[in-house]
Design goal:
Low-confidence stretches: 1-39, 49-59
Strand order of the largest sheet: 3-4-5-8-9-11-12-13
Strand content: over 45%
Order of helices and strands: HHEEEEEEEEEEEEE
Structural class: mainly beta
Helix content: 10-25%
């Protein structure tokens, strides 16, 4: 996971340097080319914002407008909740997954996006980034790797931290409706759409006096491809989000059939 993040940061830096060089060396372009070009940008937040943005563009204000860029947007920080066959209470088979609600979190952000703006108030874009679900377990157990089904072991150890997590490459398709700018230059947004995810890995992280800090990586039967939907409401750069995945959290593990994931919280950047 660290290699992926480091590679991503280096790619952003290289792309930014390339975009700046191209911008500084660009020549005047005829109007006939301006209307057909694509907007490429390095940005934070809204695609029309010029803050933290290095843009190579030769297009005018006509629509539709196509764009592709590296970004740091839609940073989500919220709570994750397990839903067991429609109930917020875990069934006896899943009771070993009891978790600390206020320490079970969802974190994610987008790093690349491409889209089409049809008018000043509506845009469709496909983006990609990372998404983590971090389950803070209550029980002194160890989720075991390389097992035919999701399996755990009870330990005679008092864990100060026992975290069970998954990492996904997230690929949401967003339908973004926004208002006109007000006198402060801000807009209200409602964004929704389908959200797919490819599993990058699972991890058990434990801290105890007996064993110190331990990290064990495996897929832990987390579903390889998850799909669901999301919605975001916001004003300016701040907002709230909710995400729900329609398929099960785990696969090839019958006792966890019907166990799903709901997340909600705050989001930064539209």
């Amino acid at each position: 996971m660290k290699r992926i993040i480091i590679t991503t940061i280096l790619s952003i830096a290289i792309f930014g340097a390339f975009a700046q060089t191209k911008k500084d060396s660009s020549m005047a372009v005829p109007d006939s080319v301006k209307r057909k070009s694509v907007n490429i940008s390095l940005s934070v937040g809204d695609d029309d914002s010029h803050r933290w943005k290095d843009t190579t563009t030769y297009n005018d204000r006509s629509y539709p407008r196509f764009s592709f860029g590296i970004t740091f947007s839609r940073f989500d920080l919220g709570l994750a909740t397990l839903i067991d066959n429609g109930s917020f209470t875990l069934s006896p088979k899943n009771d070993f997954l009891r978790y600390r609600s206020w320490k079970t979190s969802n974190v994610g952000f987008d790093l690349v996006q491409m889209g089409v703006r049809f008018n000043p108030n509506f845009k469709i874009y496909l983006s990609g980034g990372f998404d983590w679900t971090l389950i803070r377990l209550r029980e002194d157990i160890t989720i075991l790797p390389n097992q035919p089904v999701l399996t755990y072991r009870r330990d005679n150890i008092d864990y100060s931290k026992n975290r069970f997590s998954s990492t996904y490459l997230r690929i949401p398709l967003s339908f973004d409706f926004r208002t006109n700018e007000n006198n402060e230059g801000k807009r209200a947004h409602i964004v929704f759409g389908p959200d797919g995810g490819l599993l990058l890995g699972g991890r058990v992280k434990q801290i105890s006096k007996e064993n110190g800090k331990q990290k064990i990586d495996d897929d832990y039967h987390f579903t390889k491809f998850r799909y669901g939907g999301f919605v975001r409401f916001g004003y300016g750069d701040m907002g709230i989000f909710a995400k729900y995945y329609f398929n099960d959290m785990f696969e090839n593990s019958p006792d966890q059939k019907g166990l799903k994931n709901l997340s909600f919280g705050f989001t930064l950047g539209f």
